[in-house]
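Q: Second attempt. The first request was missing the SMILES, so the protein and adenosine-5'-diphosphate are both included now.
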Amino acid sequence: MNSILKTKKIIKHFDGVKAVDGLSVEIEKGKITGLIGPNGSGKTTLMNLLTGMFPFDGGFVAVDGVSGIKKIRSYDIPAFGITRTFQDVRLFEQMTVLDNILVVLTERNIVSALFERHKKIHHEKAKEVLERVGLWEKKNELAINLSYGQRKLLEIARALAMNSEIYFFDEPFAGLFPEMVKLVSGIIKELRTHGKTVVLIEHDMGLIRELCDYVFVMESGKLLAEGEPEKVLKNKDVIEAYLGE
Ligand SMILES: Nc1ncnc2c1ncn2[C@@H]1O[C@H](COP(=O)(O)OP(=O)(O)O)[C@@H](O)[C@H]1O
Ligand SMILES: [Mg+2]
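A: Got both inputs this time. The predicted holo structure:
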């Protein structure tokens, strides 16, 4: 397996709550990996650890580097081309839609952003990603004035603007109308077509079946099952975990 990211017995505790409890996962490069499990099973926490939001209490994360997989510290993770969206959408509320994109493009290269040529390149990139999610006409609206679905799409556009190697999406479909679900699943498939790696937290098993090449099932911070969606979703333990039995 050509893994781009892996964890070995990674642990995160919050005051006695074992949110992630000795988890070992391997994420395959260029594939869509699903992360499923009941509420509170530790999916978002695992994503937080993998994207360097906070340090872990044990184990390690390794990222594919120039000289193969290597161990990294949490604060190094952003340097490895990892981008994410949040379960609770996070935007610059008082900025326009366009500026929400431009700010991530320019913050990566503040000095060059001062030059006209770079400004033009950034603007073209922003237009490209906003058109992709159907928000170009809304470019001058403040983020705070968008609908819930549009806000999720803007966050996805911002992730796309980062042009990363690995994209993490935490429940990107939650609360979206069917048309938007189609749009977002198209974007996720397109990322895979372009050789990008996607990690997806999602509750809709239809979408997991449709999109994912491989799935990890979490329960109480531990791994309950893993494998191809068709097989995993037939697993008795997995079915019971979802029915709460
Ligand atoms: N920042 C935090 N502080 C304290 N407890 C947390 C924090 N984040 C998550 N938890 C706890 O860790 C467990 C796993 O949460 P989470 O990773 O959000 O689960 P999931 O995304 O699978 O619903 C829950 O019991 C949750 O209350
Ligand atoms: Mg969550």
